[in-house]
Amino acid sequence: MTFPILFxxxxxxxxxxxxxxxxxxxxxxxxxxxxxxxxxxxxxERGKDFYLGLHHRLDRDTSGVMIFTKNKIANEPLAEMFxxxxxxxxxxxxxxxxxxxDQWEVQNxxxxxxxxxxxxxxxxxxxxxxxKAHTLFRKLQTFKKGLLIxxxxxxxxxHQIRVHLAEAGLGIFGDDxxxxxxxxxxxxLMLHALSLEFTHPFTQEFLKIESSIPSDIAEFEEKLS
Length: 225
Fold this sequence. Notes:
Number of strands: 11
CATH superfamily: Pseudouridine synthase
Radius of gyration: 18 Å
CATH architecture: 2-Layer Sandwich
Structural class: alpha+beta
């Protein structure tokens, strides 16, 4: 499999992560991951000394744009931009058909808990403790059996979009951790990282790097219609 390159200059490279691959190596070293496979692809194309630096992640079943450094002098600026939330991430997802405003935001605190049934770690909103989580939402389209929602996280908590929507009764189709609609059955988590927007720390140019909507999400939209 060859991963599409969405943007590249002398400092950064952005590529399209498919659904089903962890973003980075896991405890199981035999398990494929996006970062390792992309690095292998680029080293085969450009030489074994090609450098690739990892600075953020997407959930295993989320598809879409990820940005990496290709020059070590870019590591600190990119890390700083993520830390200070100077990179605007935009996602789209297909959710349960449920009443919601055209635009809204969620600000709360999320904490990590272990689900005894799933035997997995998950997030839940808490009244005290936890970490601040803030997401802007917009309803883009209403289908007969679901909604197309845009999400812009303003913080970087694990599963933030998924838990904010699930707790609002708007579970994402295909979610195997949080409450989600089962009919029609989705082939995977219907969540896609659509774009990254930021001011380039070296050129000061404003950049918007976009990933097109995958065919499996487009086909599932037809089912919801």
